[in-house]
Structure formats: C-alpha cells, structure tokens
Design a protein that fits this description.
The chain is mostly helical. Helix content is about 70%, strand content about 0%. It is built from six helices and no strands. The chain has helices spanning about 1-25, 35-40, 45-70, 75-90, 90-100, 125-145. The model has no long low-confidence stretch (mean pLDDT about 80).
C-alpha cells in the first residue's frame, strides 16, 4: 500500500513538473498582466492537449505495450502509435476546425480578433512532446520488465 501511494505521488509530481514547463519557456509581456496565465495556459485547447498526452502515456505503458508490443504485434502497434501521433500533431487544427475561434476566454473577447495568418499544418511542438512522452513511457516500461 505504501509503495502504491509513493508511486501515485511521484506520478502527480512528475506530471505537474512536465505540464508547468511551458510556463517557464513561454514569452511573457514585460508589463504585469494577471490574466496572462489564464488566457494562455487554461484554454480548452491546452487542457485537451494535456489530457491527451497524459492518457497516451498511461495507455501506452499499461495497455498498448503489454497487449501489442509484448505479443509481437509490431505492425499494429506501429500503426496505432503513428495514428495517435498524427492526431496529436493535428490537434490544434482539429480543435479549431470543430470549434473555430469562437471559444475564447473572457479577457480575449475584448481584444482584437486573431490575425488571418496561415498556421502550419502540423504543430511541431506537439510532435516533439508526443515523441518525448512516447520515449519515456516505452523506456520506463521496458526497464521495469528487465528489473
């Protein structure tokens, strides 16, 4: 029981550290803006993206690897991971395609509308985050099997 509690606390701490990393590296305005955090990090897209990556970690570690990879279903496992990678890479486009830009925070509703700039087809940052979580989940699972 104590080991399980420690593992849960470690997972919560690790996810908090991982999900707070963008706050450290995201450029902030020079003037003090108390709505900055809410406007940029508590948007529905960011929350959906974070939930997707957390779900992927646990699904890959506890479901996909034991049921597909360990049973030598490499092709199906590879297709599944690539499919999830493509979905996560296009998540921003999918989100804005479904909801448009109408879903905004209260503070953003009073600012100018978004510029009509051409967005990249795939979000490279999402691809990097997905691959990092994939490497960690797969690596941790394989190391635990060896020990």
């Amino acid at each position: 029981m104590k080991k399980l509690t420690v593992q849960i606390v470690i997972h919560i701490a690790a996810w908090l550290c991982f999900l707070l990393l963008p706050i450290l590296f995201y450029p902030r305005p020079r003037e003090v803006d108390y709505n900055f955090f809410v406007d940029h990090f508590l948007t529905p897209l960011v929350l959906i993206s974070n939930l997707y990556i957390i779900a992927f970690y646990y699904l890959n570690t506890y479901l996909f690897l034991p049921r597909l990879f360990d049973r030598k279903r490499f092709v199906f496992y590879t297709v599944l991971i690539l499919g999830l990678l493509v979905i996560y890479g296009f998540l921003g486009r999918i989100y804005h395609g479904i909801f448009g830009y109408a879903v905004q925070t209260q503070a953003a509703a009073f600012t100018r509308p978004p510029s009509p700039r051409v967005r990249p087809l795939v979000n490279a940052a999402n691809i990097a985050v997905f691959l990092m979580v994939f490497v960690f989940s797969t690596g941790i699972r394989v190391i635990n099997q060896w020990l």
